[in-house]
Amino acid sequence: MSKLEELINTLCPDWVEYKPLGEICQRQKGMSITAGEMKKLDKLNAPIRVFAAGNTVANVNYGDIPENAIITKQSIVVKSRGNIGFEYYTKPFTHKNEMWSYSAKSNMIDLKFVYYYLQQHIDEFQIKAKTGKLPQISTGDTDKYLIPVPPLEVQREIVRILDNFTELTAELTAELTARKKQYEYYRDTLILEQDAEYKTLGEIATEIYRGSGIKRDKVTQEGIQCVRYGEIYTTYDIWFDKCVSHTNEEKISSKKYFEHGDILFAITGESVEEIAKSCAYVGNGKCLAGGDIVVMKHNQNPKYLAYALSTTDAQRQKSYGKIKSKVVHASVPSIKSISIPLPPLDEQQRIADTLDKFHSLASDISQGLPAEIEARKKQYEYYRDKLLTFKELAE
How far apart are CA 48 and CA 31, in angstroms? Predict the structure, then answer.
């Protein structure tokens, strides 16, 4: 019998009382501060964090904000607008007044236990938030939410178990981040420091053209394979051989195709840093390219081109001159101006094969660290759901 099972069998074998969050925790108000003021006061490594809607944060110094606005208790910060969520925070902080936070009212409540329980039920809050025009929840939604309150010893043991899972996942994630940086350094070194002539994509391309719009309602389960520009950011990596979307070819009035070896660029995006993300199609058969995609045909190794276009130097060229706004655009002329080193085809193949191995180790969800992290997350969620399920006292 585990320690937790022994505690439950001894201290609460039959049932656990559920209480409203607002009864066991003290709700804390925020302060009045504008986004402009936050930006002006934001300083790297300053000791006080200021939370705002939209997952925006700033770090400020003592004296920059009123002393009575600073919260020093361990707290759960409620992210009440947009992407609803909770954050357990133990350092001095405050938040904008459209947000709120909670601290424990007594030493019989382990606040991290409450946080884990809220995280387990985050979907309920996200669904509730979508009922209005702007996704958001109210103080009543959290104040009245029922939380199981087992004996403190049980709360602490559950927190200890779940902390072990989260700490292991954090360690693996840090290792994966370091490995990805190592891969990026190796990729840039291998491609950018070779003794090869630089050529622009305008010189490399045999043909380059824009795709044609495939609206969301035109995407089907069957039919010809197609790619919409957003999928280049969210779904496809350096190269891919199958499309996740299909469409009815007969219903597309202006058809723009791509084939094996073609490079696809997404010329509309949400950030300067990622604009014109590109990938190579190495599958078979014709596919349709949606709007805001540029298709480049060529006679080079497609994987090599895709890796060369993912280097920090290539991304710098893609981002050059772009204005940071809600929507960022690139163009065919700006893509044609990008220059990359172009060695002979046999060297392109060697580099592509080498980087395939490194990239797989750093990014493939089916093997290595990514697979281990995914397995630990699923294991954590399984035990979290199991540990945080209690039989409620019948009325």
Answer: 13
Q: Are 145 and 20 in contact (CB under 8 A)?
A: yes
| 60 secondary structure, DSSP code | E
Instruction: State which H helix or E strand residue 308 sits in.
Output: helix 302-308
Q: Are 154 and 11 in contact (CB under 8 A)?
A: yes
DSSP tag of 105: S
Mention every residue, 6+ apart, whose C-beta is less than 8 A from residue 79. Answer: 51, 53, 55, 85, 86, 87, 99
Report the distance separating Cα 346 and Cα 300, nearest Å: 10
Identify whether the C-beta of residue 48 lies closer than 8 Å to the C-beta of residue 188.
Answer: no
Return the closest-CA partner of residue 169 out of 364, 387, 378, 368: 378
Q: Select from 179, 206, 187, 236 the least CA-distant residue to 341.
A: 187
Q: pTM of this prediction?
A: 0.63
Which of 124, 153, 132 lies closest to 21, judged by CA? 124
pLDDT tens sequence across 138-167? 999 999 999 999 989 989 998 998 888 888
Give strand ranges (E) for 70-183: 75-79, 85-89, 93-95, 100-104, 146-148
- What token pair was written down for 133? 């025009």
Give 8's pLDDT tier (boundaries 50, 70, 90): low
Q: Write down how long the chain is.
A: 395
The number of beta carbons lying within 10 Å of the beta carbon of residue 307 is: 26
From 331, 211, 327, 334, select the one nearest 269 (Cα to Cα).
327
Residue whose entry in the numeric block shows the structure tokens 């609803």: 84
pLDDT in tens, 12-71: 667 788 999 999 999 999 999 998 899 999 998 999 999 998 778 999 999 999 999 999
Rounded CA-CA distance 307/365 in Å is 19
226 forms beta bridges with: 245, 288
CA distances 23 to 19, 106, 151, 209, 304, Å, are 7, 10, 16, 62, 61
